[in-house]
Amino acid sequence: MLQQFFLEITPISNDNYVAFTFFVGTMAMMAASVFFFFELGNTDKKWRTSVLVSGLITFIAAVHYYYMRGYNLETGQSPTFFRYVDWLLTVPLMCVEFYLITKKVGSTQSLLWKLIAASVGMLVTGYVGEAIYPTESVSWVWGAISGLFYFYIVYLVWFGEVAKLAGNAGPDVAAANKTLAWFVLVGWAIYPLGYILGTKGGLFGMQLVADPAAASAAMDIVYNIGDAVNKIGFGLVIYSLSRKASAA
Description:
Layout: H1 2-7, H2 17-38, H3 48-75, H4 80-102, H5 109-132, H6 139-158, H7 161-167, H8 171-187, H9 190-198, H10 212-247
Helix pairs in contact: 2-3, 2-10, 3-4, 3-10, 4-5, 5-6, 6-8, 7-8, 8-10, 9-10
């Protein structure tokens, strides 16, 4: 079975940067998953769920990236549908991390569902604009709606309930929340950038890349790099918090 697995792997040409970033993303996130899962036994009980969720995020992404790499090599197309399936599973889990690290100081299920609903709304409207109605007159509208959900999450983690709860949870949680908030503000901004590059009308009716093939490739590369950095980075911040809090 293992021999058949390696025989089925399609080789990547030296100039296929899209497939290469899919490959690197797969390996990086799978390695991160192994690390997080192996460290569960060395993690304080009250932080195990957070570290476990970090491992699940990177594991789900690694499996999807392996499949998306194969899809891209076989068809030459961007695996938009499968990418959004990945995000619908992993991005809400990343939002769950904010709930988990502030749960001990009063974070409620209402806040949890706000974060999940906003992340799902952001992704569903983004998919509609990118895959279902990718026309110049419509895609920017759906992109703007998706952006509103995104900025609501930014508000919650920077100034809203999450920020206030983290501030009351001690310096370690506050520092971790601030780092995660930077990931949301800066790291997640890569996704609307990919949307703008890859759709007609992605920025108020304009397409920044004239060649559709180049736009699709640029979008995939931006998304792949952003996914690896954001998901692994999220997990490492949670892992670091679990060590600092346990030591304290």
